[in-house]
Model the fold of this input.
Amino acid sequence: MEKTGDFYLGKITVPARIRAYLAPLALIFVLLIAVYANSFYGTWIFDDTPNILENKHVHVESLDFESLKNSIYNLNGRVNRPLAFLSFGLNYYFGKTDPSGYHLVNFAIHFLTTCFLFLLITKTLNLPLLRGAYSRHAYSIALMAAVFWAINPVQVTAVTYLVQRMASMAGLFYVMCMYFYVLGRLSDKLKKQIAFFVGALLCALLGFATKQNAAMLPVSIFLYDLFLIQGVSRHTLKKNLVVAGVCLVVIAVLGAVYTDFSSLLAGYENRPFTLGERLLTQPRILFFYVSQLLYPMDSRLTLVHEVQVSTGLFDPVTTFLSIAGIAGAVCFAFVRGARYPLLCFSILFFLVNHAIEGTIIPLELIYEHRNYVPSFFFFVPVAVFIVYVMRYFSYRKTLQAAIAMVVVIVWVGQGHTVYMRNQRFSDPLLLWSDNANKAPGVSRVHTNLGNVYFDRKLYARAHECYMQAKKVDYHHNIFNKGVLHQNLSKYYFHIESNTEKALYHAELAMEFSPGNWRVWYYLILGELGHGDLMLAKELASAACEKWPENEHLRYLKGLILLKQKKYHECVEIISNALNMGLGPERFYKILGIACFYEGKFVKASRFLDMAYKKFSEDVELMLAMVEIYQNMEDYAARDRIVQNLLCEKEELSWEEYIRRATENNLLNTYEIRPSKLLPIIRESMCKVTP
Done:
C-alpha cells in the first residue's frame, strides 16, 4: 500500500476515503455540542413522567434476561415501541432517575443520525444518475444540508424532550437502513450486497420496534430507487408496479398486526374533531411545518400548539389552498421527476413520512417532533441552491463571502434558538409559562402550568391556572378534561379542605377519564371525606384490581381498612404490597399504627422506627411514637421524640401545635387525641426540664 493514499498514525493506517469524512463529522459534532450542551441540564417534562418515572417496567435493577424482557413494556403493560422502552430501562439501570444520562443518550442518537444522514446524502449525490450534476460539490451540499437539519430548532422536541427518543432513535435506524440499502444496491459483489441488505433489513426491524412510523421505510426506499437510481420514466414506472404493490402489502400487513382498526374510529369520540376534520386540517399543518423548518423563530415553536380545526373545504380558505398545494406538489414530482429527480424525491419523502401521523390515526393534530424523519432530505434542495448560487458568482469573491456569511449567521441564529429552547426544557415553569403565552386557547397548557405551581406550593397561582383552563374549555383530548377536574379535586381536598368541591370535581373527572388512576384516587378520598367508608372501600378494591401494582391505591385501601378498624385485613394488604416491592417507608407507618391499635406495641415501634428514618419531620408519626413509647414505658425513647417535636414546633404552644396536626385527620393513619397526648408530653417535659 502506498503511503501517499493514506494517513499514518504510527502503525495505524487511515485510508484516504475514510479520512475524507473525518473533518465533516468532527465539524458536525462540534456544532451539535455547542448548541445542545445545555440540554444535558434538562429535567423531566410532560410525558416523561408516566413513560419513565412512573413506569415500573423500565426500572431495571439488574441486566438479567427477565429484567430486560420486562422493560420492553409500556406503562399499560403492552409491548409497544419495545426498543425505545428497553433503552429507557438501560438508562435507568446505569443512572436511575438522573435525567443527565438520558439526555446524553439522546444527544448521541442525534449525532449519529446526523452522521449517517451526511453519509447518505453524500452517497446519493454520487449516484450515477446524479453524479454529473452534483458529485463535484457533494461534500459541501451534504454537509450543509445535514447541518441545516441537525441544528434546526424544530428538532429540539425530538432530542431534548426525553421521551421523544422514540422519534429520534427510530430516525437513526431509518437513515441507517436507507444508507445500507444504497450501499447494497450499488455494490457489484454478491457477498457485500447480501451483507448490506441484511444490515438494512435489521435496521428496518429495529426502527419499527422503536416507533411504528418506520413502517414507511419500504415506500421511502421504493421512491428512492425509482427517482434516484433507476430514474422516472414510463418504462420504470410500469416495471415497478409490482414492487409498489409489495410495499403496500408490507405496510398493510404491519398495519393489520399493530393497529386495532375497530378502536381507531372510536378514538375520535375523545377528540374535539372528526376524522373528516382531521384530514382537512392536516394539509394546513404540513405547510405550517414547512414554514417552521424554513423560518424557525422561537415565537413559532412550542410543545403544545393551538390549531384552528378545518370544518370545511373553505373553512378556513387555507384548507383548500393547502390541499391544492399538496396535490400540485405530488403531480409536479411525478411529472418532472425525470428532470429534477432530487427535488421531486425530497418533496415526496417529506409527504410520505408524514402519512402515518398526519392522516387517519386519531392522534394530536400537531407536534414538532414528527418532522424528525420527514425532514431528512428537506434541506438538500436548499443546500444545492446555495452552492450553485455561490458557484454562479465564482468570479465575485466578495459576493461569495457575503453568501457564506449569511449561511453562518443563519446557523448562529438557529443555534441560539436551540440553546434558548433547551433552557426552557431545564425548568417546567419556564416551559409551560412560555407555552401558555403561545397557546392561550388550549386548556392543557394552563393545567400543566398549574401543576408546576402546585408542586412548588404556590397554590393560589395553581388555582388561577386551573380556573383559566376551565374557562378556556378547549381540550385536544376529552381525557385531558378529566385531568383538569382531577387537579381541581386535588386542590380543594388538600389546600382548601373542601370535601364537597373535591368530591364534585372528582366525580366530573371520572366521567371524562375513568382510565386515570389519579381520578380514582381523589374520588376515593372524596368519599372518605364524606365518611362513606363502605363506598370508599368498594372503589379502592376496584381500583386495586385495575392497577394491582399502584402503591398509592394500595396505601389508600389499607388506610380505609385501618379506619374501619379491620386491622388484620389492613396488615395483610400492606404486607402483600411490601412483598411486591411497593413504597416501603410509608407502608411501614401504616403497619406500625395497625399493630399499635392491635396492642402489639413492640412490633408497632419497630415499624414506626423504620418509617421515621425516612419521614423524620412527620408530626403525626412522631406523636404516634410518643404514645406507643409511653405504653411500652420506654421513657428515654419517648423523651427523645418529644425533644424533636419541641424543635419542630418553634414558638407555637403545644395545644396549637397538636391542634394543627389534627386538621388533616382524614388522611392520618393515627388518630391524634390531644386529651391523651398533652399529659404525656407535659410529663416528658417535666423530666427533661431542669
